[in-house]
Amino acid sequence: TRAASIRSAMARHAGPRLPLIVKNLIPTLGSVFDSQRITTTAFFAELLNSNVVNDLILLETMMDNMTGRQKDACMLVRMLALRGLGNIASGSPEKVRKHGAKLLASMVNGMDDKDDPHNLVALEAMSSLSKLLDHVEERDVQSMLLHIAIRIRPFFDSEQPDLRQSSIVLFGNLTKFSECNCEVFFEQILNGLVTLLLHLQDPKPEVVKACKFALRMCGPNMGCEGLCDMFLNHLREDRSLHYGEFMNNVCKHLMQSYPEMLNRLILTNLFYFKSNWVDIRAAAPMFIGFLVLHVDEDHCQQVDLDQLISGE
Asked: Which of 148, 168, 200, 283 might form a disulfide with 210, Cβ 3.0–4.6 angstroms?
């Protein structure tokens, strides 16, 4: 984009003059005109993608100004501010650790944006958060881990494929921080497991790729070596998947390790009987069939046959 081209050119050629340019632009962030605030925020966001702001001791100033735009009346300004904060992961990754708590709080606030009808701010927050997670302190993530996992879960089924992809990738990245809250986060994995497995049949390849990544990341946290091995071996990006055979084996491991989960897994699948995506609608009853096939007799009484037959 134009802002990216200008940033790149100025980072290369206008280094010594950048502090004065930034100083003169900062007042426009408070302009009454949306267009001026948008243009300046976009430029600052792109500038944060370059290490030159760190070299010129501009990072803290620009970061504070981006944080200050989070309550801007213009949704596009709020979105661009989050992009800028996320770009620090590329421009000055070593600074992310120092400012981790502040950056994470900004992303969580972005996901909770109340005036975001098309979830554009939330999308930017999720994408930026995934970039930042590689550089933050684990302790800074721990306090927000559960809130983020619960907040992004509804996006797994969004009609917008980019929201499905970003939320699922972020969920996979969050599993890196689940060790200290293993039992709590395991519950979140179980809440999302059916959805992730069904969206392996998503019509969008980028969403399928995200689900493969998230399931590979979830595997080691599930306490089932067979399931973990299946996710790692069969859900590689470069490997095609025989979905029916894969799900048959997944359900076998699930019922061997978590037979008490049968009814919960069935109820979640029933929700997808009315999915807008035909392949996911078809996958849900197959999923239930394999679960029932592999559960032992002692746990069969969990199944509510009337509910199952009615499909509701």
From this structure: 168
